[in-house]
Structure formats: C-alpha cells, structure tokens
Amino acid sequence: MDERIKNTIYSFAVQLMVLHFRNNHLLLLFWLLLTATATGSLGKRFGLKFLLLNPEYMGRVSFYSFFWVGLAFGGFLMAWNMTIYIVNSYRFPFLASLNRPFTKFCVNNALLPLAFVITYLICVIQFQWYNEIAPFSTILLYCIGFLLGLASMLGIISFYFQVTNKDILNFRKIKRPKKSKKLSKRAAKRMLKIESEKLQKDAWRVETYLTIPLKTKLVRQVGHYPPKLLMKVFEQNHMNALIFQVAGIVLLFALGALVDVPAFRIPAGASMLIGYAILVSLAGALTYWFKAWRITMIIVLFLGIDYLSSIGVSTMENQAYGLNYTTAPAPYTYERMDSLHSPEAYEKDVDTTLQILKTWRNKFQTSRVGRKPKLVILNSSGGGLRQAVWAMQVLQTADSLTSGKLMKHTALMAGASGGMLGMSYFRDLYLEQQLGNEIDIYAQRHIDIIGADLLNPIVFMGVANDLFLPWRNFEKNGYTYPKDRGYIMEQQMIENTNGLIDKRLIDYRNPEREGIIPMLFLTPVITNDARRLIISPQGVTYMAKTGMGNHDNGVTELDAIDFGKFFAEQDAYNLAFTSALRMNSTYPYILPNVHLPSKPELEVMDAGWRDNYGIESVARFVEVFHEWIQKNTSGILIVQIRGSDKVDDISSSSSSILGSFFNPLNIAALSSTLQDYQHDHLLNYTEELLGRHKVELIRFIYRPSKTNERASMTFHLTTREKIDVLDAIYHEDNQQSLRRVVELVK
C-alpha cells in the first residue's frame, strides 16, 4: 500500500470517525438531530429550525443572538469531545505521551463538527437571505457573531485545560509519595485496557495525527511508559472534563432562575444546545459505566422516571393561573355534571344570554322597510402565530371597510388556538376604543404585536427550567403556582401586548352583558374523555349538549362542561384570561397540558382537536337561540377565518411495504378534514332551524403565494411568512369575501 494512502487511512482523524460509526451511535445521534433541525428536516411543523437559524435575544435577531448561539454550540462541541475522550481515550494510549493531549484529541476529532458548522452557516445564509430578506452585510454580521461566539468558548475551555492539565513529563517529575494511593477498580480496569491496547496494537492502529498548527506527525510508541503513569494523564483530563460538565448544568440552572430578567433569556437555540451538552454528558456517563449495558440502563432509567412521575414524585404539573388548587378538588362524576347542568341552570343561563342578545339588538334601529340587522358570528381556525396574524389582518381590514360595523354586528366569537389569540386581542383593542381611550385599532403595529415571537421563550424555559422540574413559584391573582414554559408564554404575551390582555375572566362579564364587546367562547378539549370545556364569563350550561331544555329527549349525554359552574368552588372566574387562551391553544409538546383541580384530575389541550373552526359552537348556540334570532334578525352571518382550504388536493396512499403498514393510521392526520365533513352537516341543520337563506357563511382563507411555501404552524413567523400571510387578503377570493361582508353588514 502506498505510504501516503496508509497514513491517511490510519490517521487519527479517520480512525476516530471509524470509531464513532462503529461504537458511538448514541453520541452521533445528537449531530443527526442538530443537522436535521438546522436543515428543517426535523420539527418543520413546529418551526424548530427558527431556533437555530433566526435566534432572538432581547426581542430581536442580532449579532448578539448569534453570538450566544455560537457560545452555546462551543459548549456543546466541547462536551461532546470530552465525552468521547472519557469513553474512548484508553483505545489510543499514545495520546498520554503528548503535550496537551486533550487539545490534540479535539483537533483530530474536528471532522464531524466542521461539517456541521459549514452546513449550519450555509443554512443561515439561505434562510436569512430568503425568509428574512436580510441584506448580505447583516447576514455576514450574523455569521461572524456565531463564529466569534464559538471561538470564544473554545478559547476559554482550551485555556482552562492548558492551565489545569499536566502532561506526562510533569507526572514523571513528581516524586513518588511514601504511601501511594491505590487506584480505583475502574482505574485499574482502564490500566488493563491500556496494556491490552499496547499488546494488540492492530486493534486501533494509528500511524499519524494532526497537531497545532495543522501539521501531520507520526505516532510514537509508548511501550516504555508504565501503564499507571499513562492512566494518571487520562484521569486528570477526565476530572477536568467532569468539572466542565457540572458547570454547564449549574449555568443552565442559573439561567432558569433568572428567567424574569430579559437579559438572561438567552436565545432558545442556545439553551437547546446547552441542554444537548448535558444530555451528551449523561449519555457518555452511561456508556462509561455500563458499556454494553448502556441501552438497557437507558430503558431502565426511562421506566424508573416514568414510574416516579406516575406516583407524583418527579413531576410538576402545569396549572391554570387564577384557580384555587389548595381547596378540595371538584368531583368529576356523571351525577355532579348532571346536577350542575340541570334544567334550572339551563333556563337561568339562557335568560342571561337573551338579555345580552337584546342589548345587542338595541344598538340597531329597524329600517323603514323593516330590515333587521344581521347577527355576525366570527370564527377562526388554529394555526399558531400564522393564524393569529391572519385573523388580525382580516378583522382589521373588514371592520375598517365597514366603518366599524362588523364588530358592532358581532355577537359571538369562537374558534381554536392561534386564531383566537388574534381575535381576542382585537376584541380587547375594540374594548379600549369603546371605553373612550384613544387607540387606533387598525394600526399595523397591532399585527406586529400579535405576531411577535413566542417560540424562543417557550423553548428556553423548557430547557433551562422544565428540564430540572419547575422549582420556583410566582403569584397570580392571589394564588401561587410553579414557573414553567406555560408561565413564560403567558408572561411574554402580556409583555408583547403591554399588559392589555392581562385580565381575569370575570373582567369581561360586564362588558359582554352591556353589549360593549361580543361574547367569546374558548373551548379546550378534556383529554380524559374528549368533552369540551366551555370557558366564558357568563353561565353557558346551554352549550353542554344538543337538545337541552324543552327539547331534551334524555338520549344524548353531556359532551361539554360549563367551566364557570364546574369550578365555582375553585374560583373559576378568577382565571387569568391568558391561561384560558393558552388552554385553548395548547399544542402538544410545545406547551404543557394544563391540569385542573378536580378528582379525577382533568387534563386539557388545544380546542382544535375537536372544533378547529368553531362551527360546533355556532351550531349549538343557534340551536338554543334560533327562535329569538328568527324574530329579531335577518339571519346570521358566519365569518370564518381559515388557515387552509376547505377542499385540498387528494393525496395518494403509499405503495411501499412500510408506507402501507402506516396507511390505516393516516386517518388521524385528517382530523381537520373530518371536522369539515361534520361541520357541513351542522351548518345544514342550522339552516333548517333558521329557515332558508337565513344562514350565510363567508370564508377568508390564507393561501400562500405561488412563490412561497405555506407559513409554518408554530409560535414564530419569519419576515417572508408574515408578508405572505398579510398579502393573502389581496387574493381575489378574499377580496370577493370582503365585498360580500360590506354588502351584508349595513
């Protein structure tokens, strides 16, 4: 074999790569996850790539935000190097004979990190140029920030190891103490392995290695060194690596403790990388101690944590802020549900809502030709910040074109997730205007406010705080709760809106009863039994099941719960409105499911899993009040703000073996389509109740332009995505919908 080819194949760098792919699959997984995240292959639906490609610090993407990501990546990189070094250094005993062995190990172990850095920078350049429409000078500044952060962390850690680590020459100068300490059993085993490697050199044959500066040197033999001396070099390297890993955990713990100080809310991408560094260290520890049993131990560890969480030892469940969790939990039984949703409660709540409708009707004068007003119901689907921005754009545009008449005609708002974030914020702006405060509810800045990033603080809190279990508390509306990523989402929403939505549920009761603002239903789903939880400042027992009151035939059962009635003893109407919004938009894994003070304990999540478009709420409401609506209105107008077309292209099923196996499960991904089928039936039923031509549905649909991909359904929007969402109002179908709204709302 040619000498150059042999030296290349048996170079330390190449042999380390062979070692990774042969032995270190668990540690390679982290690079796979990072690469998949940066390229958008992983978590595209959740917008995970934004955390790395568009990090925010102090509310903006900047040189400093990328500097933080670079620092954190440097920490992850060194944690990975240390873990590989601790687990595998005994395979390469020649390292112990080198000056600064760990530094030279890192240089030779740089192929994989270098490939990722190049890939990452390419992704950043492409993303910032296309999605954020950033100038080249700004993109260059971002890349410099990342590289400077990376270089700073590498420099700090290299300096630390240079100061604290001794090489083999230093150890040879140390005189032997009178009473030598016995090596631990673990160290003794490592010594035997080093001896074995020397005797069986061909096991990991290394001919050359890279040094600093990048020059190739031949590996020298170490057979003349005592194994105990070699082991001392490795042991002090391992100890320094352990100190660094502990420091990383302490740092993340400290950042979680300082989360209320904006300056300490580092970019979520940086906190994610620090979390990966900790996980790499744990994976290395399991590999070091349990070797071939590491996978078994991971499974045992996972099952152990799961068991502890099942008995309440290692979990801290998220709570709805404003509720009283210290009093006796509300019994969740069929008997109690039936008693709370009794005919008497039904009649009382119907009467209260009829008074609200009458107040709404009194805002209009019947025209000379006997024309009655249209009763408008606003619906919006879920879809993260994309849908929040789209709902704001539609409401601002439609209400301004009707000179404020759209909101004046609106009696009810309902829907799911992000759409309700936008509609509720617009309702609060409208409330301020109606109370006489000087505010331009159609200003562009309100779209910027509702579209401001929420993903970064949520992920940051998840890594910096929830990873260690929430251990700090805060006070809200008179009660104390643990801080977690649910808390930080609400806090960020309050900060973004300058406190406008920082209200209690009961604060909306009188404005709704006085007809100042429309009623609003939030309807998260109870995961225990798929019932809906109807959250409103008014009594809404009439929403609990179809055919209630005089029409109740006793066949149907309750498929919803009046939140206010059910949790009356737990201070239901003291609920923070932001918590109600969060419960209504709790997308799995991104936000924690809320646990309510009941027995058995109820857990709730996103309303979109059952009624993504709000039509079920509309049909139930009209069913109860159809007689009044017939007498006092010219019919209802449902304005539906959707994030996708009702009719999509028909996709083909997979013909591969694996694809065919999962085809039967694909029906779960079509929940929105299934809801559309059901909603068509409900709309037909509603029209039968009110009469022909008394129900009109106008849809505003976000359709991406031909040159853009559909905006992601997450809590972050890029500049291009935001522009694309806003421009959807100019689509001819949406322009036609605007003209029809103006025509009907007079």
Task: Map the helices and strands.
Layout: H1 3-9, H2 12-23, H3 25-39, H4 49-53, H5 63-88, H6 101-108, H7 111-130, H8 136-164, H9 168-173, H10 185-199, E1 208-211, E2 215-218, H11 227-257, H12 268-290, H13 294-310, E3 318-319, E4 330-331, H14 334-340, H15 343-361, E5 375-380, H16 384-401, H17 405-409, E6 410-415, H18 417-434, H19 444-450, H20 455-464, E7 473-476, E8 479-482, H21 485-496, H22 509-513, E9 519-522, E10 525-526, E11 532-534, E12 560-562, H23 563-566, H24 577-584, E13 594-596, E14 598-599, E15 602-605, H25 608-611, H26 615-632, E16 636-642, H27 657-662, H28 671-690, E17 695-701, H29 719-727, H30 732-744
Parallel strand pairs: 3-13, 4-14, 5-6, 5-16, 6-9, 11-12, 16-17
Antiparallel strand pairs: 1-2, 7-8, 10-15, 13-15
Helix pairs in contact: 2-3, 3-7, 5-8, 5-11, 5-12, 7-8, 10-11, 11-12, 11-20, 12-20, 16-18, 16-19, 16-29, 20-21, 26-28
Strand order of the largest sheet: 9-6-5-16-17
According to CATH, the fold-level topology of the largest domain is Cytosolic phospholipase A2 catalytic domain
Number of strands: 17
Number of helical segments?
30
CATH class of the largest domain: Alpha Beta
Evaluate the radius of gyration: 31 Å
Number of domains: 2
Quaternary structure: single chain
What sort of overall outline do the alpha carbons produce when their principal axes are compared? elongated
Residue-averaged pLDDT, rounded?
83
**Describe the biggest sheet?**
5 strands, parallel
CATH architecture of the largest domain: 3-Layer(aba) Sandwich
Report the portion of residues in β strands: 5-15%
- Please bin the fraction of helical residues: 40-55%
Which parts are unreliable, with pLDDT below 50 for 5 consecutive residues or more? 171-181, 194-203
Structural class: alpha/beta
End-to-end distance: 89 Å
